[in-house]
Amino acid sequence: MFEQASNGDFKMKGIVVMTDSETKAATNGFGMPSFGFKLALPGMFGDFAEQGVARAQEGCEKMKGASEGMAEALRETYSSTARSATDYGLKVIEISNANTAAAIDFFSHLLASKSVTDIVTLSAEQARKGFAQVSAQNKELWELAQKLAADTGEPVRKRVTQVFQKAS
Known about the structure:
Layout: E1 2-4, E2 10-12, H1 20-25, H2 43-112, H3 116-167
Antiparallel strand pairs: 1-2
Helix pairs in contact: 2-3
């Protein structure tokens, strides 16, 4: 179990024991010893350790690949979301412009009316047109919102599916 080294010190088989002078030389800069013990593991334990390290490295590589894939998915998602959000914003501006023009048109007709009957008729017609117009506009905005949601989720869904397929 013990063997004598060439310098006269005793050491255990598989463990390197440092002399006092070596221990003093191997301090960590703060006056504390760094305890430079080296263990020589028997063959079977060394093989297990090597397999564990190899598996850990393989796992790290898989995680790195998955991380890169998700970063790409987020870039795609950001790009498509920005396009869809821009389309939605432009549609809101277009709708606002159309509603403002319709309101101005209604008020100009209202000012030109000569009787109470004309005012009531114009108001009823404006309400009917306004309801139909708002319904159509809401439908357009709803379709754009659905497209935005689909465009946002699709790249992430694809990448997550790919990552899980590669992992299994």
